[in-house]
Design goal:
The structure holds 2 protein chains of 2 kinds.
Chain A (H helix, E strand, L loop, with lengths): L4 E9 L5 H9 L3 E5 L6 E9 L2 E7 L11 H13 L3 E7 L3 H14 L3 E6 L1 H7 L2 E2 L1 H8 L3 E3 L8 H12 L17 H12 L9 H9 L3 H8 L4 H19 L3 H20 E2 L8 H9 L5 H41 L4 H18 L2 H17 L1 H15 L7 H6 L4 H7 L6 H10 L9 H11 L2 H28 L10 E3 L8 H35 L4 H16 L5 H22 L1 H13 L6 H9 L6 H9 L8 H10 L5 H13 L4 H11 L3 H28 L1
Parallel strand pairs in A: 1-4, 1-5, 5-6, 6-8
Antiparallel strand pairs in A: 2-3, 3-4, 7-9
Chain B lengths: L10 E7 L3 H9 L7 E7 L6 E5 L2 E5 L1 H4 L2 E7 L22
Antiparallel strand pairs in B: 1-2, 1-5, 2-3, 3-4
Pfam families (chain B): FeoA (PF04023)
Keywords (chain B): Iron
GO molecular function, one term (chain B): transition metal ion binding
Chain lengths: 712, 97
């Protein structure tokens, strides 16, 4: 069988209409995910071979309509116009056919070659609904194929019809949808004017005319540049006036009403709803889940469950991964010759790769959890329950789950903001996530709280630090949303989809997509940054320190008056102090020392400065760097380091408090910055954010330090 | 009357949309146009977004958005009983007095 003949099809449909399941069933393993240009909407493409045709399938984002207000709708419309797929498959959610037909009417207006896949037929039958598809076909002027992605029925018939439409065997009957008098005439008139315009040949002129009367800004912009606009405008103005005079309303509303009355007519003629209305499962579940008293506890429980699923289940895998990498390092050490190359490869690059991959378990688990919530229908309800609180800070209800995930790790949390549709809502949410104290910062708090505060006090301080993070985050959101990001918040007009049991395939697919995206897109950036920080904290190496170490080592070895155990101790002490000196000598060390005048007012000396610089690789590194600087071997337990810190005159309770605040708020780790850049798309917001977080960290640490000096 | 002023359980019909263009578009696309009858299902636990039901669709919106949707109340909890005062009362069932 040859596959020389190609067909391209695009799937359109409402959100939650089973479009993605259909896409998965059709294309199976032949899928790839990209982005639509300029937006962070994922573009799913795949192909299948059927009866000698290679059918390329694009799954367009779910939309209710084709107006230019939401990014999904703009993307869908643009794709249909610019890429002109051979066949558009309009997936309709059978049980909710009335609502789904709005998009169909707009495809009819565009006069694209389309057919309807009447999906979820199994559910339609179960409910006792009857749909007269023959009659509906006549009304819509296109073919309708009943399908069920879940039960895998009707798929062959769908593909057969796709081929017939694609090859011109079936033609779409046009002009099935008319508007009321007072609208129809100007539409025809404008349409004729525009049809003469050669530059607009790519568009359907009737569609353009309808869009003009709907005052669609994108079409408006396009038409305004054409000579025909002069005449068209006159007609349009007259139509606007007429509409007001005749119907007391503007054409946009009238057109919308006419579409809906067309749909209502079609429903009356073709669809028979079951006689008795029984309370659906969704109603019963919502009575509990959205209950005024139980709603909030249920919500908190779900968030807690997702959080634990992600981070508790992820922890052993993470540990297993990092031990795998240290095993690799040990194994590699045997085969590579000693020297700089080995050190860079094993301690730098391999550790860097490990640093990238270590986040994978969390990303995969979080997205399994989130896509389960999304596909089951709870995600929209979660936003409904918590929106009041989030809206007060200018955020959307959907910002909550990414924000909470930030307490585990910023990286999956930042990636999770994709559920937010509006660009400004997303940006604001991304910017507050790093203030949520992530798991890697905890070791720093444990070290400092343990060293300087009584256990009873330590818990309160820890709690206070977490609260401070939330407060700074929400404050930041509020500032952002009331200044630079004030425009175009997503209106909270949201459907609560009926509850459905998600298919395993689509949940796993989502997690796979996110994992690959992280590794491919952010992985290289993070790897580079981790390696750079590693090099900076190890190079340049001072030959003088090295020579000193050799000399004193030889002296100890030669000292006959020492026992074997004592020798061992002396040697490791020497080794550690040399390491500490090397760190001070390295680029990171010098940066730390250069920073000293700046961080002096916060109570930090150059040693803390170095720890803060290396902490950019990952926040928990702050602890191990401090151990190195204080000449402790890297495998000392925290108790020793705590004792050392306590005995250091430069360190006191105020410094500890100030350092905790600073670690909480200053720049997130490079991995988070890398993901941030990938999600935002540009460097500028990320750099501005970095400057902002440093400033906030400095000011609040200063207040904490001075306050603590006064009161403690 | 505004949609935001309705109580849980009330039934009403949309009479006009006085909201921003983008929100109006969204509301109309959802099928909430002049003449649509709906029921107020519930208010979120914290009192803000509200949920209404019409044509098989569960739609939520913030009260600030519901503020711009003009409605005429046509019934309340219970059912079928017209709860209007004034002229329409004459057509009510059973409400003898």
């Amino acid at each position: 069988m040859t596959t020389s003949k190609e067909l391209s099809i695009a799937l359109t449909g409402n959100p939650n209409c089973g479009k993605s399941s259909l896409f998965n069933v059709l294309t199976g393993a032949h899928q790839k995910v990209g982005n639509f240009p300029g937006v962070t909407i994922e573009k799913y493409e795949g192909y299948l071979d059927y009866r000698g045709y290679r059918i390329k399938v694009v799954d367009l984002p779910g939309t209710y309509s084709l107006t230019p207000y939401s990014p999904e709708e703009i993307v869908t419309r643009k794709y249909l116009i610019e890429h002109r797929p051979d066949v558009v498959v309009n997936v309709i959610e059978g049980p909710n056919i009335e609502r789904s037909l709005l998009l169909t009417t707009q495809l009819m207006e565009m006069e694209v070659d389309f057919l309807v896949a009447l999906n979820m037929m199994d559910e339609v039958e179960e409910r006792g609904m009857k749909i007269n598809t023959r009659q509906l076909q006549k009304l819509l002027g296109c073919h309708i194929v009943p399908t069920s992605a879940k039960k895998r029925t009707g798929l062959e018939s769908l593909l057969d019809h796709v081929i017939r439409v694609g090859t011109g065997d079936i033609t779409i009957q046009k002009n099935k949808l008319f508007f009321r008098s007072g609208l129809e005439e100007p539409i025809n008139e404008i349409s004729e004017l525009l049809a003469a315009e050669r530059e607009l040949a790519a568009y359907n002129s009737r569609w353009l005319a309808i869009k003009l009367l709907e005052s669609d800004r994108e079409v408006y912009r396009e038409i305004q540049r054409q000579p025909a606009w002069v005449k068209a405008e006159v007609v349009m103005q007259a139509a606007l006036k007429d509409a007001r005079r005749l119907y007391g309303s503007d054409p946009e509303e009238l057109i919308s009403e006419d579409r809906h009355s067309f749909i209502r007519g079609a429903m009356k003629e073709c669809v028979e709803l079951p006689k008795e209305k029984r309370t659906s499962l969704t109603d019963y579940i919502d009575m509990v889940v959205l209950n005024r008293v139980l709603g909030l506890p249920v919500f908190l429980f779900v968030v807690w469950a997702v959080f634990h699923f992600t981070f508790t289940l992820g922890a052993p895998v993470m540990e297993w991964l990092s031990s795998l990498f240290s095993m690799l390092a040990v194994a590699g050490g045997r085969y590579l010759p000693d020297g700089m190359v080995r050190s860079i490869l094993l301690d730098g690059v391999l550790a860097g790769v490990g640093g990238v991959l270590v986040f994978l378990p969390n990303i995969v688990l979080l997205f399994i959890g989130l896509s389960f919530l999304e596909a089951s229908g709870y995600m929209a309800r979660a936003a409904f329950v918590i929106d009041r609180v989030m809206h007060r800070f200018g955020l959307h209800g959907k910002s909550f789950i990414p924000m909470i995930t930030g307490f585990g790790c910023s990286i999956p949390a930042i990636m999770a903001t994709r559920t937010l549709k509006s660009r400004t809502d997303r940006l604001a949410t991304i910017m507050i996530i790093p203030f949520m104290s992530c798991g890697a910062k905890l070791p720093v708090y444990v070290l400092l709280c343990g060293a300087f505060f009584a256990p009873s006090m330590a818990a309160n301080i820890l709690f206070g630090i977490y609260l401070l993070g939330i407060a700074v985050g929400l404050w930041t959101a509020w500032i952002l949303k009331s200044t630079v990001l004030s425009s175009d918040s997503e209106p909270f007009v949201m459907e609560l989809p009926p509850y459905r049991w998600p298919t395993l395939g689509s949940v796993v697919f989502q997690a796979k997509v996110k994992a690959l995206m992280y590794v491919k897109k952010a992985g290289t950036l993070i790897l580079a940054a981790v390696v750079i920080i590693w090099v900076a904290s190890n190079y340049p190496r001072s030959a003088v320190i090295e020579a000193d170490l050799q000399r004193s080592r030889a002296a100890v070895e030669a000292d006959a008056g020492l026992g074997a155990a004592e020798k061992e101790d002396r040697l490791s002490a020497l080794e550690q102090s040399a390491q500490s000196e090397q760190l001070a000598h390295s680029l990171a060390g010098r940066a730390g020392m250069l920073m000293e005048p700046v961080i002096r007012p916060l109570g930090f000396d150059w040693r803390i400065g170095i720890a803060l610089v290396t902490g950019l690789a990952a926040k928990e590194v702050v602890v191990s760097t401090m151990a190195t600087i204080y000449s402790l071997s890297s495998d000392t337990d925290t108790g020793d380091l705590q004792a050392t810190l306590r005995s250091d005159p430069a360190f006191n309770r105020a410094t500890a408090l100030s350092l905790m605040v600073f670690v909480l708020l200053y720049l997130p780790c490079v991995a988070a910055l890398g993901v941030m850049k990938k999600e935002v798309g540009r460097w500028k917001p990320v750099l501005l954010y970095s400057a902002y977080s440093l400033a906030v960290a400095w000011v609040l640490s200063f207040i904490a330090y001075r306050g603590a000096l006064l009161f403690l | 009357m505004r949609l935001s002023e309705l109580q849980v359980g009330d039934k009403a019909e949309v009479t006009g949309l006085n909201v921003d263009a983008a929100i109006r578009r969204r509301i109309m696309d959802m099928g909430l146009i002049k003449g649509t009858r709906f029921k107020v299902l519930r208010v979120a636990p914290l009192g803000d977004p509200m949920e209404i039901f019409f044509k098989g669709l569960y739609l939520t919106m913030r009260k600030s958005e519901a503020d711009g949707i003009m409605v005429e109340r046509s019934g309340g909890v219970g059912d079928g009983m017209p709860m209007h005062t004034g002229a329409r009362r004459r057509y009510g069932f059973g409400g003898g007095r």
